[in-house]
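Figure 6 in text form: structure in, sequence out.
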């Protein structure tokens, strides 16, 4: 077995132990799972809801639901199972609000990751390069929020959080084929969104100049 595979397997086994401990009522084990996934859950909620407070509420609600229902987890991808809960929580919030996600670019650029819409200065990065990267991130974040909800979920879970097709299918209660279709359409729509706003893109990132 290659070293990378062994490390990956070790991580999977450790997570399984934490899940089993949580199912037995061990709060410490569940808190370890929260620590592992809290940033990712908050990031996804923030991208879907576009509001910091709403994302924090959704994150708290999602983990509360996960804790109450973890005995119902029957194996497979825990991450996929958890994001199904996050999906449902965010959907409930959006349905209850009866409005589009808030257009807060400050919120979408303040999370601790480096995906689309997130830009943080590197110690070796020039200030002008950081400003350009943030500008591009803002535009991509706005483009993601312009997607239909099903396509937005596919793009965020795949291209931002790196979930597999199978995990996304589990998280969104859909088939792998549906996930691939939504992801393809979402990416194409996002690309068209950016191309239609080439004048807003930093010079070094413009497509088909």
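Output sequence:
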């Amino acid at each position: 077995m290659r070293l990378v595979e062994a490390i990956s397997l070790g991580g999977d086994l450790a997570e399984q132990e934490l899940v089993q401990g949580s199912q037995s009522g061990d709060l410490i084990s569940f808190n370890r799972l929260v620590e592992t996934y809290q940033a990712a859950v908050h990031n996804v909620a923030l991208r879907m809801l576009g509001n910091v407070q709403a994302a924090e509420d959704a994150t708290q609600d999602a983990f509360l639901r996960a804790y109450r229902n973890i005995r119902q987890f029957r194996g497979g991808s825990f991450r996929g199972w958890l994001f199904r809960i996050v999906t449902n929580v965010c959907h409930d919030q959006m349905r209850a609000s009866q409005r589009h996600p808030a257009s807060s670019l400050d919120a979408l650029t303040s999370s601790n990751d480096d995906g689309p819409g997130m830009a943080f200065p590197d110690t070796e990065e020039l200030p002008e390069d950081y400003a350009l990267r943030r500008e591009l991130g803002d535009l991509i974040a706005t483009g993601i929020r312009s997607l239909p909800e099903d396509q937005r979920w596919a793009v965020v879970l795949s291209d931002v959080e790196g979930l597999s097709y199978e995990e996304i299918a589990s998280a969104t209660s859909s088939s792998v084929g549906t996930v691939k279709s939504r992801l393809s359409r979402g990416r194409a729509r996002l690309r068209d969104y950016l191309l239609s706003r080439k004048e807003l893109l930093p010079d070094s990132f413009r497509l088909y100049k």
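Caption detail: Residues 3-205 form a domain with the Rna Polymerase Sigma Factor; Chain: A fold (CATH 1.10.1740.10).
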